[in-house]
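Question (not urgent): is this output format expected?
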Amino acid sequence: MKPYSILQYSTEQIRQISNLALLKIVDILQEKGLDAKTAIVRAQEVFAHEHEKATLFMHNLQSLFDEGVIEQVYHFIANRALRQHPIDFSSYDQLVGMVQVTQKKHVNAEDLEKIKLVAQANRYGLTLLRVRG
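Got this back:
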């Protein structure tokens, strides 16, 4: 994985990329061969016209799942963007499907509760905080 640098984007492209989660998806799409402009448009579209909340959505997932799962989620999102299939991050069913595919196993009851919490927070634009025990 390459380090992220906004220097590779034009000023106009930087304005279009509103957050770090979106930038990461754009970078993955460019690694798959898309040009910068197309990658930006596809990354925005995969968030179902809520791309300005992409970092919030990913933060909420990161607050409840470990880094390994999150890295796989980014690649899942990029693949959906590549095929132009938007994801509704406030949809419990879509989040369950995404986590299930990335974990390559059935989601357990504890994870289902986490996903329910993420979907609800995303629906209302709330930020989840990780509580360390």
